Amino acid sequence: MPAVLQCPGYPEAKLRCLAESLQCREVQASTLLALMGEPQQYSYPSVFIYGHRATGKSHVVLALLTELELPHAAMSCVECFSRGLLFEQVLMALFGPEAAALLPRCASFSDFVRVYRQMCAQEPADQTRYIVLERAELLRNMEANLLPGLLRLQELVDDNVTVILLSEIVWDKFRPSTGCFEPLLLHFPDYTKAELQQILSRHSHPSYTPELYSSYINILLGVFYSVCRDLRELRHLAALNFTKFCEPLEKGEAQESDTHKLWRRVEPHLKRAMQTVYLREVSSVQWEQQQMDEKEATALRGLSAHAHVELPYYSKFLLIAAYLASYNPARTDRRFFLKHHGKIKKTNFLKKHEKTSNHLLGPKPFPLDRLLAIFYSVVDSRVAPTASIFSQISSLVTLQLLTHIGHDDQLDTPKYKCAVSLDFIFAISRTVNFDIVRYLYDFL
Amino acid sequence: MTTSSVSKGCFVFKPDLKKRKRTVDIEEYFVDADDDCSYGRERFSICRSLWEKIKTDTEILQDELNKKILDSLLEFIKKCTSSFQCRSDEWSCLMRASEIPTAALVLGVNVPDHDMTFQSLSDLLQESVTPFAVSVQAKECSGMPKSNLMQKLLERLMGVRVTEEEYEEDPSLSGVPLQQKRVSCSIGALCQWYKAVTNKHKHAMKSPGKYCSLENDVLQCPPIVVIFKDFEAFNPHVLQDFIFICSRYIQELPLLLVFGIATSPCTIQHMLPHSVSSLLCIELFQSLSCTQHLATVIDKLILTAEFPFKLSGKVLQVLVNIFLYHDFSVRNFVKGLQLALLEHFHSQPLSVLCCKKKHALLNAQKLSHQHLEMLRQLPSFMRYVEAQEPQEQVQLLTSDKYVKEVCQKLLKDIRKYHKNYYCILRCLSSLTSSLPKYPLGKHIRELHMSCLERNIWETNEYESAIQLLRLLAKDELVATLKKCADILKPCKTKKMNSVLQQLEDYIVKLEHLDSKFIWLRKTDCVTGIKNVFVFRSHLSPPELQPLHEVCYYSSSGFLRQHLNATPRTSIQTALSQPFYYLQNENLKTDAGTVSSSAPDICIVYKLHLECGRLINLYDWLEAYATVVSGAEGKDPDSEEYGKVDELKHARFIKAVSELEFLGFVKSTKQKTDHVARLTWGGC
């Protein structure tokens, strides 16, 4: 039986009901309740709640606020991508649309405070007002005064208001260099396996017994717990694969009690799900379709199976040249691309820091000149430096096969990086009969 | 223009609108002012009708090729729409995370061609699924990223509706409501709008309206389809946030995404982390490869006797090379074809004969004396004349009436030649395209190009292809020959009928051969094939046909110069040989030198070529002053000679900054009074 939430000032029945819906988060919920205090009491100005995805942060906070019918404004910072939008939404939720209309266009923080005070004077708070901001890490990218301002909003507007920030990132990454009011920190730890089991088992399929469903969840967690602890994702996966689990029961091949048999049937299926539908290689609709068709042999090709890219002939060579320029040290170009380079042994021009594989270090930027010089030496025919060659470079950039580095000034020797993998470039060079291994410093 | 102002200053003269509007009709370019009997108008109208035909044909072709992928995409969207509607309270529906249905449309790297595909996609969507289909492009959503994407979306969805319904009578008002709506640039506003619109639709449905033809369930809540035309070019963060926002509203708003992907579906995983891609339900749609597309276009537009206009081997080579080596764009290929067409009709007066048979014969009858003289000058016609009897030669050279008759006959001949040529070409291609190592090329266009260039039966490749044919098993040979018979059947010319007859007899003969003797008779077999198809007479290059100049366009250099421009070479030519562009006699010099009266930038450019990577500005200025003084005609011994005055200094600085603008030099931090060269090589 879950621990009962207790806090004076709130109706008992509602608290009991809350405790029911906030399973495995009783500790956090009661801490929060304790912080909030009685409705009319002043609460702490700002609370910062962090924890991984799907650990019940928003769920707990919003359940408390809605169930206890406290005045609140909840929004996600992804949606309110500008401060104007954020202020508007907050005022709309707390005071109604006429308050939001008072905000001038391009409202600053002081405009917001002014309107808030104005509204507040009209309707003074008899209960603590709450402003809940999800994905609060995005506040850091907005104006510098926004986050510190929100943290001490209570003081600024002189009202009984509490700002609750929710994020997946720890507070240390938020703290502005100029310092600010420190919020109370509250951590939501990951659910343990047992907790996940408990929560997931609650929503059992109506046509089957809860025990069967619970054993199914057990099998599912056995497969997926090592890779995924996201509650939402696990529930999704459970729903997708449950019909497969029940198939032997439907066909009369097994009883509900034959857990081992059921496990043997469903486990390989779940493993396959982990490699396909979990990674979104195959969409959930396709996955269900496949289950229905029972054509397991003709497995669907995932997204990454279609890695092949067709490119025009010179684009291929440009990409090869870019790859060489990115992964070979510039000093070695003479060795690879000059006909009479003399004998240079690898050990002779090997510097200490270059002993590690360039492929481990990742691509290095190179100037356009070098790219073209290598291009002209690897391409087998004489190519005029036409406009299409240059436009191919920029289309490679838009296709994200090359990346443009640094400033946008195209005149001043632009620099690029090659953004394709070794396998990709192998495949490309095979199609043009170019033995790229002979030109790569790492494979010498 | 004058002003009545006494003070010094800048005055802006806005161009006179009336003056500017007077544009030259395209037709006028075809008509010579002093020569009105050159049939310019006729040529222009033939050219235009041919282009119209090419355009509609390619559009039809494109639609046919895209039909499959677009149909399956539409199917997918309809399926998703109906699943939005019957969102039941079933257990599995409640448990499943609600994902945004997403179609990943892999279209290949030929980005210029995608526009047409997206256009037909959104047309189809508007027609049969939803009025709310929006396409966005990455370049529209740059700058303040997130808000721009959302703003574009809202504007296109809501703005268009506003102009359509309420402000129909006054289009100038359409800007106003957009401005008002800008304030609530959030998806919440979109939700409200959507609810209002669908409610209105429901009411409209009760009364007989224009939407009644649509299916009921689609009508009730049509999905909002957002098409990302160039997925790769979008900022990943913008996309991630957008998808995240959409997923929060998916219960209220039936959203559907379409990603137009140019490379491979892997980019989705590169751009979106698992936390975001898990919000999507992605289905893959792969389009035909562009090389297949090109093959069909060539097959329908070039390898057909239907079009009187033809490309020579070299021209076709240029166009195909641009396609294969540079852009993979079928649209650009067709544009190149258009340029060739225009240029042919513009530059060749006799192209008036390059049209449909009846029309061409009529035009031949009307040819003026001047044109007939031109006709007589054609190399192919001269060769033809030389091959005739002396008496006939005289007549051909003197009698206009006779030439007209002969011309008509030759035009008929060349038509027949084309008809036979393409049939036999297809036969040869189907015989050889499956041979190991493709001695005559894999695609029919390669075979076509080599046939245009030379006598195919004299080449080594042809020999080896015939050798390989010998090694074919009897069944295979018979099968390919039957395919040839199918190709020949629609050809209606007399010659082709006889070839078909012979071929059929030959197939019967082959089938009756005892397999034991087949090895002995293989040689006969293949000579038999040669005899049946008479490649020698049908596949001769068009250059041997009299009057081929009328319908073949052959200046590949012009096309290459215009389609595959070399800006850098042009700039260098302009700088090193100013005469080339300015055509001023004073600038004419020997190769490698620049006249001292050349424009400043040319002199500066020439001087900078002699320097290394870093250029001392002062030395450069001195050298410049010396050269310019030479142009002023000063006495080399006087003190003034080579002296830097204010004017020269200013001119020099201007020229250097022009060079900097062109990307030849830039300032460097290594030495303050130096500039760095950005090009290498010198004189």
TrEMBL record, chain A:
Protein name, per record: Origin recognition complex subunit 5
Species this chain originates from: Electrophorus electricus (Electric eel)
Assembly and binders: Component of ORC, a complex composed of at least 6 subunits: ORC1, ORC2, ORC3, ORC4, ORC5 and ORC6. ORC is regulated in a cell-cycle dependent manner. It is sequentially assembled at the exit from anaphase of mitosis and disassembled as cells enter S phase.
PANTHER family, A to Z: ORIGIN RECOGNITION COMPLEX SUBUNIT 5
Domain Origin recognition complex subunit 5 C-terminal: 311-440
Main subcellular location: nucleus
Domain Orc1-like AAA ATPase: start-end pairs: 22-164
Gene3D superfamilies xrefs: 1.10.8.60, P-loop containing nucleotide triphosphate hydrolases (3.40.50.300)
Automatic annotation (TrEMBL), chain B:
Domain Origin recognition complex subunit 3 winged helix C-terminal: 568-680
GO molecular function, one term: DNA replication origin binding
Tree of life domain: Eukaryota
Record localization: Nucleus
Any one Gene Ontology BP term: DNA replication initiation
Family that this chain belongs to: Belongs to the ORC3 family.
Protein name as it appears in the record: Origin recognition complex subunit 3
Organism (species): Electrophorus electricus
